[in-house]
Design a protein that fits this description.
By secondary structure, the protein is mostly helical. It has a domain of 32 residues. Helix content is 35%, strand content 0%.
Length: 52
């Protein structure tokens, strides 16, 4: 993670973001414990397809 942060800064960017799929508690805990915070969260619902 530190290497990714350093590469981000070296490239002139000021933020590093990750996409973590819901239910991936291990990744969520890792990022939270290393100082990352949630900036967006989405929910969806799979709808059944119509049958003919």
């Amino acid at each position: 993670m530190a290497a990714g942060e350093q590469a981000t800064l070296a490239a002139g960017d000021s933020a590093l973001m990750f996409t973590v799929w819901g239910g991936n508690e291990v990744a969520m805990n890792l990022y939270t414990n290393t100082g990352y915070r949630v900036v967006e969260e989405h929910r969806s619902l799979a709808l059944p397809r119509a049958t003919t």
